[in-house]
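Quick one:
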Amino acid sequence: MVAMVAMVAMVAIVVLVGGLVGPAGLALAPALAEEASARPRAREAGLVVGTFPTGPLNAITDVAGVRVGHTTVVRGEDVRTGVTAIVP
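Output:
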């Protein structure tokens, strides 16, 4: 458990250091989302990854015993970052 906490802390530091986003970066987000929605998802294009069928939500939380947590940090106008922890 201590190793998991240390790993999550390291990920949080990397995300915080690399996660500074200015107003120009925020302005690009809607354009990128629009472009991504125009392309089909991999499964819709016929690309199937793995050998097992997807779960009911097609998400990592479909796997029994896996817990997922997320938090977002907002600091002023220029910092938007977060961290996700996946605990098996």
